[in-house]
Amino acid sequence: MVKITDNINKTLQQIKQAESKYHREPGSVQLLAISKRSSIVEIKTAVAAGLTAFGESYLQDAAPKIEALADLNLKWHFIGPIQSNKTKLIAENFNWVHSIDRVKIARRLSEQRPAHAPPLDICIQIKIGEEDTKSGILLADLSRFAAEISRLPRLKLRGLMTIPKQITDFSTQRLAFRKLHTAMLALNEQGFTLDTLSMGMSADFIAAIAEGATIVRLGNALFGSS
Ligand SMILES: *Cc1c(COP(=O)(O)O)cnc(C)c1O
Q1: How would residue 108 be classed by pLDDT, with cut points 50, 70 and 90?
Q2: What is the pTM of this model?
Q3: CA nearest ligand 1 atom 10, residue
Q4: d(CA 192, CA 177)
Q5: Which residues have CB under 8 Å from 146's CB, separation 6+?
Q6: What is the chain's alpha carbon radius of gyration, rounded to the nearest angstrom?
């Protein structure tokens, strides 16, 4: 547990240094703690260290954590693939969904978002390279897809998310993230008002910050044993 606190403090420091080094505004990069492999006790340790936003990939694992931690007023982000039969609970229990790549799923989330809650914050998941994970839409389809999503009344389209292929070379890591940033700027030129780039994981978040990430999604760097 001490390890988690140390990891968080060290990572927050790294984010701050990267903001400064790459001429990003101080505080413009949010740390989203990916707690999909973490217990309730571990999440409480992260909360004690100052974190308030957590990301989960599997609804069945996330639901008991969200319930147990309900009085802490945390923000929950869904980051995994979504099946149709899970949309209702996701619409009811999460603040953000980063993994939108099907209109049908987005439509269900919009319809099932409770009336008393604010619109669900959404990122469209983009597949940057041919070799990337199967989730995500292609950049060529983004403009039309974003137009459809932005019509859904109970969703708020905030930005783009990607999970690039794992590579170790820093300047090659930056290329994929730059493409996501360019795609967001192009949408905004067309009249969209996106403000979020959800990109960068434990192995590549510095490159993502260099290219404009506003949310980095870190699991291992915070909760891992290494
Ligand atoms: C698990 C996961 C992460 C965190 O990955 P780490 O390498 O542990 O930092 C980030 N984003 C998504 C979509 C994930 O599934």
Answers
A1: very high
A2: 0.97
A3: 217
A4: 20
A5: 124, 157, 187, 192
A6: 17
